[in-house]
Design a protein that fits this description.
Blueprint (H helix, E strand, L loop, with lengths): L1 E2 L3 H14 L5 E5 L3 E2 L4 H6 L10 E2 L8 E5 L2 E5 L4 E4 L3 E3 L3 E3 L4 E3 L6 H4 L1 E2 L3 H10 L6 E7 L9 H16 L5 E6 L10 H14 L1 E4 L4 E5 L4 E4 L4 E3 L2 E5 L1 E3 L2 H4 L23 E3 L12 H20 L10 E9 L2 E8 L7 E8 H19 L4
Parallel strand pairs: 1-2, 1-9, 2-5, 9-20, 11-18, 12-13, 12-18, 13-14
Antiparallel strand pairs: 3-4, 6-7, 7-8, 10-19, 15-16, 16-17, 21-22, 22-23
Helix pairs in contact: 1-8, 5-6
């Protein structure tokens, strides 16, 4: 049984179906009816694609040995591997929890009343309706908690917002500032960070590093930073604090806010229970490409045990992060988190060709998971 049909859950499902075929009896459960790539929220936010065009219905999944249920998960008992939804209770031989990270908006005082978050699909849609009305003022983009999904996303939003305001003809009447908890925009890669900082300087985006937004004062339209400073804004775009879903929190899987797993095979402390993706504390960023890699390692471990063979693979902590810098260009960072004493990133400067490569990756995943072409 696989809980959650995001990057990790979909990749694990496809991998197991590919390896086991009709010998597989897999139930994939998600409360939603469709999937969207996380970065497609930016396309929706800035009006580049419609909300409908970036959604992929789970009903299209036709894989040997796989059944999909759209149901809310009410309870997880990892010791007995029992999962209760609003309609049924199921027992699994192997349980994989891939429910991703939720957002704790109330954890940042004033965010709900005085700002907009763009990490949920609904939040991106709300911002897309509001942005065309901007004529002037200070737009503040701020991180409110750490860790958070896709560390490059705040930088991408700042640069894409610049392009949007230029297109609207109002950039010269607007300020853009970015508050992030890192010294560098992408800590594992000096090269990628240098390129972003150059873009910020060229495009007049104020970069405020090693800081987070602790609270919003909606009445005064002021963001309060962790060091006590205040920054006035006309529009606040925030990255909300992240947390495990409530059903995972009460399951007994969590330690120190996230789910600990064996770094090699993604097993939890409970027999035949795995966790992959953003809910874990495995040590890689909370991003789809790393959830996908972890899913492949977990699938290999499951198949090895099913087949009675030695598990010789493992999660390497390697991944590729694409970084939008505006003007139709995308950069890439190839990151290795586990092989050395510190994470290492190899940077490829942004080009239109890498934008095409990113699109090809999306098409490849769609084809693998849903059978969709083009």
């Amino acid at each position: 049984m696989v809980l959650g049909a995001g990057f990790g859950g979909l990749e694990l499902t496809a991998s197991l179906s590919e390896k086991l075929g009709e010998n597989l009896d897999l139930i994939l459960i998600d409360k939603n009816d469709s999937f969207f790539f996380g970065y497609s929220k930016l396309d929706v936010m800035f009006g580049r694609r419609s909300p409908q065009s970036v959604r992929h219905a789970y009903s299209r999944i036709k894989k040997p040995g796989v059944a999909f249920l759209q149901e809310n998960i009410m309870d997880i008992d990892p010791e007995k591997r029992l999962v209760t939804t609003e309609n049924r209770t199921c027992e699994a031989d192997v349980l994989v929890v891939a429910l991703g990270a939720d957002y704790d908006i109330p954890a940042t005082p004033g965010l709900a009343e005085g700002g907009y978050e763009f990490y949920s699909f609904g939040g991106a849609e709300r911002i897309s309706r509001m942005l065309p009305g901007i004529e002037k003022g200070h737009v503040l983009i701020g991180v409110t908690g750490f860790p958070f999904k896709c560390p490059q996303a705040p930088s991408e939003v700042a640069l894409l917002l610049h392009d949007f305001l230029v297109h609207q003809g109002v950039r010269n009447k607007c300020q853009i500032s970015l508050v992030v908890p890192f010294e560098l925009p992408i800590p594992p890669s000096y090269g990628a960070s240098k390129e972003l900082l150059e873009k910020f300087a060229k495009k007049g985006i104020a970069y405020i590093p090693e800081m987070m937004v602790g609270a919003i004062d909606p009445g005064r339209k002021v963001a309060e930073l962790d060091d006590g400073r205040e920054i006035a804004f006309d529009l606040f775009l925030g990255i909300p604090e992240h947390c495990v879903p409530a059903v995972v929190e009460k399951s007994g899987l969590v330690f120190d806010e996230w789910v600990p797993v064996n770094r090699n095979n993604l097993k939890t402390k409970f027999p035949n229970v795995y966790a992959i993706g953003d809910i874990t504390s495995v040590g890689t960023p909370k991003a789809g490409i790393f959830a996908r890699a972890a899913a492949r390692a977990a699938a290999d471990s499951i198949v090895s045990e099913y087949s009675g063979m030695e598990f010789t693979g493992g999660y390497t902590g390697n991944g590729q992060c694409y970084v939008e810098v505006g003007e139709g260009k995308v950069g890439r960072v190839d990151v290795d988190f586990f092989s050395g004493p510190v994470p290492r990133g190899v940077h490829l400067r942004a080009t239109a060709a890498l934008a095409e490569e990113k699109l090809h990756l999306e098409m490849s995943c769609r084809s693998r998971w849903f059978g969709e072409q083009g």
